[in-house]
Amino acid sequence: MIEQLYQQVILDHYRQPRGRGHLPDPKFMHDGANPLCGDEVVIEFQVDGEVITNIRFSGQGCSISQASASMMAEALTGKTMDEAREFIRQVYALLKGDVEPDLETMGDISALAGVRKFPVRIKCASLAWHVLEDALKGLQATAQSK
Ligand code: ZN
To answer: Which CATH number is 2-145 given?
Structure first.
């Protein structure tokens, strides 16, 4: 079942990406690449207090990397930075096989469990999440040094 879901959801997000594009006035911007596959993801976002209010992504690469970025934009918009960090940890655990996919709590993200069978693809699927995680770390460091 996860295989079917995987294909459907990846294709759906790849063809109709949520949050692809640019913000008129991005507050934060961060990028990352997966040279193994040629994937690039750029993330722009805005923050209101602790809440991530707007996420846009751009870039290029395989369907998994771009679909995963779309899922990330959809899943993390409106979350606090702490919630986002926790969510990202869950995604890594899902990709590693440490937690089982759960449609009810994870929605489309569960489909990413389908990449476990293709270890080289895990980097494609995790790229966007790494980029946002890095950006949040940078934010935290700036806040602490003030
Ligand atoms: Zn890729």
So the answer is: 3.90.1010.10
